[in-house]
Amino acid sequence: MVALLRYIYGLPFDEPFAGRRHLLQPHAKVYVVAEKYQIQGLKFAVYKSLKRMLQSETDLWKENADGSIVDFMDAFQAVDTGTAARNDQLRKMMVDACIWNLRYLRQKPRFLAILEHSPGLSVAIISHLDLECSLPGDWVCEVSFDRQCDPMCLYCKESFGEAFAIRHRDDHFWYCQKCEKNDIPICGDCEQPVVWQRRGL
Fold first, then answer.
1. Which residue, 12, 125, 153, 168, could crosslink 176 as a Cys pair with Cβ 3.0–4.6 Å?
2. Using an 8 Å Cβ cutoff, are 144 and 153 in contact?
3. Angle 43-128-116 (CA atoms, 0-180°, nearest 5)?
4. Vertex 182 angle, CA 181 and 186, to 5°
5. Which letter, b or e, does each residue of 89-123 get, where b requires 16 or more Cβ atoms within 10 Å of its Cβ?
6. Given its phi and psi angles, is residue 148 left (phi above 0), alpha (psi -120 to 50 degrees) or beta?
7. Domain boundaries, the chain
8. Torsion of Cα atoms, 142 then 148 then 152 then 158, to 10°
9. 8 A C-beta contact, residue 193 and residue 152
10. How far is CA 158 from CA 7, 143, 153, 179, in A?
11. Which percentage of the chain shows pLDDT scores above 90?
12. Which residues fall within 8 angstroms of residue 163, CB to CB, at 6 or more apart?
């Protein structure tokens, strides 16, 4: 409520967060309050903040894994219990983040418990167009199809990372943020092009 009142009076809504500004959960709680009272401007402001934060944390497990995942699940649960299961943009964005990190989130009992009590979110995840990339599979060499690979940049040999590789698996050319070049991803071992190959279920 404090964040809502600050927004109404033209003050930064997130100032009371202090050292918690980098966390998803307090932003998600403000979004829920804005949804409840239909304060569209505040909803949009919080949505933009959360979008920026989620885009910078697509690999939840890489840095401070436990803290990042707990914060994500806190925010995920707040959005689930506090918003309607209609076409809510934040819910869609949170589901996208679940898909990007599904291989790690599904190992967390709390995440599974959230889905167990939220059929709407479970359906959103299971019907997501990108779900197939999180099912069992491997990046393999396009030539032999029998060597598991870590997709890397053709020029600087920097690993793209799993989350990036999942999101761009259908793109022929990948943009490397390190060397700023655009080309096909390759295997770090044999330098052959890589493709995603699903395993049998």
1. 153
2. no
3. 80
4. 105
5. ebbebbbbbbbbbbbbbeebeebeebbeebeebee
6. beta
7. 2-132, 136-198
8. -160
9. no
10. 43, 21, 5, 9
11. 27
12. 58, 59, 100, 101
CA distance 124 to 45: 24
* pLDDT for 34 beyond 80: yes
- Express each pLDDT in 57-114 by its tens digit: 555 655 445 678 888 899 999 998 888 766 678 888 888 888 877 777 888 899 999 9
Phi and psi at residue 159, to the nearest 5°: -65, 135
For residues 171 and 177, is the Cβ–Cβ distance under 8 A? no
pLDDT at 140: 84
Per DSSP bridges, beta strands 182-183 and 174-175 are antiparallel
What residue type is assigned to position 28 of the chain? A
Q: Model-level pTM?
A: 0.63
Provide Rg for the chain, Cα atoms.
19
C-alpha to C-alpha distances, 192 to 44, 101, 164, nearest whole angstrom: 44, 27, 19
Closest Cα partner for 31 from 54, 14, 19? Answer: 14
Cβ proximity of 34 and 88 under 8 Å: no
**Owner of token pair 């804005």:** 34
Q: Give the pLDDT band (50/70/90) at residue 13.
A: confident
Instruction: Please tell me the distance from the alpha carbon of residue 130 to that of residue 132, in angstroms, as a whole number.
Output: 6
59 DSSP assignment:
S
